Amino acid sequence: MVFSQAMKFIKVALNDTVSYVTSGKLVAPYSFVHPSRTIDTYLLFLGLKNTLYIQEDQDQYCLDKNTALIMDPNKKQSSFKTSYDLSYYWCHFYFNNKAEYIEYDQAIQMYQMMKNNVFADNNIILIPKKIKLPYPEKVNILFHQLIDYSYGSYYTKAISNYFLTSILIELTHQSMNYFTSNIDTNASYQFTEIIEWIKANVDKPLSVSEVSSAFNYNPNYLSNLFKAKTGYSLIKFINKTKVSKAKELLLKTDKTIKEVAYDLGFSDDKYFMKVFKMYMNMTPSQFRNAHYNIHINSK
Predict the structure, then answer these.
(1) pLDDT 10s digits, 178-200
(2) Least confident span in 21-25, 73-77, 172-176
């Protein structure tokens, strides 16, 4: 998979499935020129045979075999060169959340954080605009299933939304694994080590000074480094990690709120409740009661 640092990445929060419109497989055994048009949907291509020469406004792309490309809505699409003996999958769709483009360095940082579960959840689609797939057979199978199910006699079209969302998740997964396996520098390794150390010591009364001391960093430097890489402070990550563990204890044990607080290194259960509410918008008791059935079924 070859990327340029000038390449842009599409980032979308995935709170729900994407909205499928239509899809198909183009087979052009002779010459082919893509129609000149402007449409309001995103368009996903997956190259199967030979090369499609496609232009988006002034930007030109070569869609080769085992390459995925996402075209933006409301931009003029046209061929800039005739293709021959061409085949590719295509799908029109909408993102249900706002899509934005981010730069290479920001995307790499996000991939690292997603890989290390820094975020509360990883419900994010993050794909280079054009990708040479390392494992194209997986996406090929999903695309074939998408088309098969979309034209089947199912009682709901929601199945198409789920299959298309699965394709975009697989594209994100392959991209993330590629990048995290090729940028394992000493700095990124140590950053990962710090995250894992915090998780392993979540039952202790952690502070910025204590974490910094464990890794021989200046506290201000480590806080700034953490902010640059994650977008939020080191103490916020410590608290989010403790709250995440607290949720698990509240749902899977019968421990009191005070016991949960002490198990996570809080000497004051009232302060623990304040921190929990800050991140969850509810008290620990309200959280446990809201998930009472889940708690019972987990035993």
Answers:
(1) 776 655 455 555 677 888 888 88
(2) 172-176
Residues 249, 25: Cα–Cα separation, whole Å? 49
**Helix or strand (DSSP H, E) at 29:** strand 19-32
- Alpha helix ranges (H) inside the chain: 104-115, 136-150, 158-182, 186-200, 208-214, 219-230, 234-252, 257-263, 269-280, 284-290, 292-297
CATH for the stretch 9-180: 2.60.120.280
Measured in residues, the chain has a length of 299
Contacts of 191 (CB under 8 A, 6+ apart): 112, 225, 229
Q: In whole angstroms, give the CA distance from residue 55 to residue 227.
A: 39
Nearest to 258 by CA among 248, 271, 245, 242: 271
Q: Whole-angstrom Cα distance, residue 274 to residue 261?
A: 11
d(C-alpha 259, C-alpha 299), whole Å:
19
Enter the pTM of the model.
Answer: 0.65
- What tens digit of pLDDT does each residue of 99-131 get? 999 988 788 878 877 776 666 567 889 999 998
Q: What is d(CA 90, CA 111) in angstroms, rounded to the nearest whole number?
A: 26
Q: Model confidence over 252-298: pLDDT tens digits?
A: 888 999 999 999 999 999 999 999 999 889 999 998 888 765 434 33
Token pair for 192: 């990962």
Instruction: Return residue ranges of the chain for CATH 2.60.120.280.
Output: 9-180
Round the average pLDDT of the chain to a whole number and report it: 86
How is residue 151 annotated by DSSP? T
**In CATH, 186-297 is 1.10.10.60:** yes
Amino acid at 123: N
CB crowding 120-149: b at 16 or more within 10 Å, else e: eebebbbbbbbbbbeebebbeebbeebbee
Q: Where in the chain are all domains bearing CATH 1.10.10.60?
A: 186-297
